[in-house]
What does this fold into?
Amino acid sequence: MTARGSAAPLRIGNASGFYGDRFEAVREMLTGGPLDVLTGDYLAELTMLILGRDRLKDPRLGYAKTFLRQLEEGLGLAVEHGVKIVTNAGGLHPAGLADAVRELSARVGVPVRVAHVEGDDLVGRGWGEGVLTANAYLGGAGIAACLRGGADVVVTGRVADAALVSGPAAAHFGWAADDHDRLAGAVVAGHVLECGTQATGGNYAFFGELGDVRRPGFPLAEIHSDGSAVITKHPGTGGAVTTGTVTAQLLYETAGARYPGPDVTARLDTVRLTEDGPDRVRIEGVRGEAPPATLKVGLTRMGGWRNEVVFVLTGLDIEAKARLVRGQLEEALERAGRRPREVSWSLARTDHGDAGVQEEASALLRLVVRDPDAEAVGRAVSGAAIELALASYPGFHVTAPPGKGAPYGVFEAAYAAAEDVRQVAVLPDGERVRIPPAPGAAGEPAAVPAELPEPLPAGPTRRAPLGLVAGARSGDKGGSANVGVWVRTDRAWRWLAHELTVSRFRQLMPETEKLTVCREDLPNLRALNFTVDGLLGEGVASQARFDPQAKALGEWLRSRHVEIPEVLL
It folds into this structure.
């Protein structure tokens, strides 16, 4: 990598936003246009639980096996095009994946220098009983050390997603740990890239305006020495890069104006986006502050056993049918003396009157049970449900035969002092380099005041879906959900900033009524960000809701009807 002050921009692409993303993306990114670095993000809260269970079966596992299969072709392409590869596919066993990459290198006849970063694994440090995985979110400094040490491929375990970009950028430009503004710019660019095609039209609220989004291309960032960046994609690939698609991804799984990470705290309220040509959006003006003195630690544990039965209710008297079968099953569980610890029911009125298709005449009654004992959610529940088949509501049937139940996991966020986490970069020659933590902030920073615009003058309104004027992107952070809402004109922002208060948000989303809801204002992006604590229970693996990752929470909000000024419509 080049020395401090290099003027050449660094072109960093992404080929994976999660474990299971488009397999061909590595080849597409390596052959679609020039790159300096190709990253792959394979880890999520649920993924760590999956890898933890893999490791229980075989201690040699614990990494994303898909990445190795992608490298069988991709390694030669990367060397041919002079592209470094940086990935967190190491999961729970980065050293194991690094060894596997060396074996693959020898097998396919493509010599590469492989390094890895370790030290994130904190299992056994007193997190309580039943912890399966405990991993600190490391920063990009270990990645930077590996690249400076001559690595062609860098494998990490749990690092902050954006570290896959901030690390290579710091190595390329020679940034120091206190180059906060530059690092913050790279972190923001990394956050845009980390979820792959969500930055190029995937899962985008206004997808109908983008043209062909059937197969969006993966994004890349041109990082400059001052920390600014241009988000784009390879020529000829699908989807689009617009200020809207970039804004949507910036709001994804964030909370306040400050975006804390192990390298730096990025100030999202300072981000400025401008169009820089077709499929090019410039990110600049990002300010950074010292990172927190603690590192986030993701804990997973097995939570118990879960089972689910979905009853189909068709035609007339839906509510009465639901009361009948619910009462029957509750009585059966009481008689058996094996009532699960948690029993929840939900009725989704998906039915329509006078429907021309039977499925459209049907509603779904969902029963979910949880218990530490597998037997309590197994035969005791499934048997009781099936025994009602000829003795309950007319038209009785279920979407699938109830089974024995399955284990479910729990995710929890904890924190550890950064100085207590021993991050190590293992260079291609085997040298082990201790990576000191970034100097953390001395205390809690003051709140960031947001200056809201003047409200729109009063005028005629029309009741219509919020989504006609506002986009949204939602997701999960442990047991909490976030919903980012943005508009595309200053006039619409003058309305949204005063219309969508926390109180109004609760009215539109009744599920949040008894939960803590926080709103953060991001005027530069014409956006509001809402965090709903506890909506997702104990995290995605616990499947507390039918949408366990809150992926569609924003689309539900956009579908709600509000009084919208006619000048905006």
Q: What stands out?
A: The radius of gyration is 25 Å. The mean pLDDT is 95.
